[in-house]
Amino acid sequence: xxxxxxxxxxxxxxxxxxxxxxxxxxxxxxxxxxxxxxxxxxxxxxxxxxxxxxxxxxxxxxxxxxxxxxxxxxxxxxxxxxxxxxxxxxxxxxxxxxxxxxxxxxxxxxxxxxxxxxxxxxxxxxxxxxxxxxxxxxxxxxxxxxxxxxxxxxxxxxxxxxxxxxxxxxxxxxxxxxxxxxxxxxxxxxxxxxxxxxxxxxxxx
Length: 205
Prior knowledge:
It is built from 6 helices and 2 strands; from the N terminus they run H-H-H-H-H-E-E-H. With about 200 residues, the chain is mainly α. It has one domain. The chain has a two-stranded antiparallel sheet with strand order 1-2. Helix 1 (about 5-30) runs antiparallel to helix 6 (about 135-175), helix 2 runs antiparallel to helix 3 (about 60-85) and helix 3 runs antiparallel to helix 6 (about 135-175). Mean pLDDT is about 80; it is low at about 175-185. This is Sodium/potassium-transporting ATPase subunit beta-1-interacting protein.
């Protein structure tokens, strides 16, 4: 395949997903957001599998990557719903913190322009003001980027698996005309016994 093919595009997408997920993982660690930390860990593993499968022509690994991509999209949609506080969901929901104390988005107090007041050891809810962008929007932007990359990666993953399957079928088809296929080595080595050939005709003096 050429570098303009879907295979190379999927490799580039996997690298972008790795960069975006590692960046998100760092800030989730700083905020002790344990559920997103676990999700990011599995995302990194599955993206590496997809990257390896694409580079090494292993469609099964790409299928795992695509399957996880569907779950990853669903999780990030849930994260957006949490920060939008849809229904009974709130920012303080245990689904993100797993009930851990002092677990809150790092961007809540460290966003651009944020000023924290009443931030003492006894204060669990410090007052934050002056933020250029509220932390809920920062988290939703992170989730939206992950959703966009996962959807594009899923589409290209299915396409690359299809291309790999078509190539395997074409090799089998070509090998079907021969006694040995393209994926099967000959079991026995044939030996041709040479016999002398006699030509009838006048003797040459």
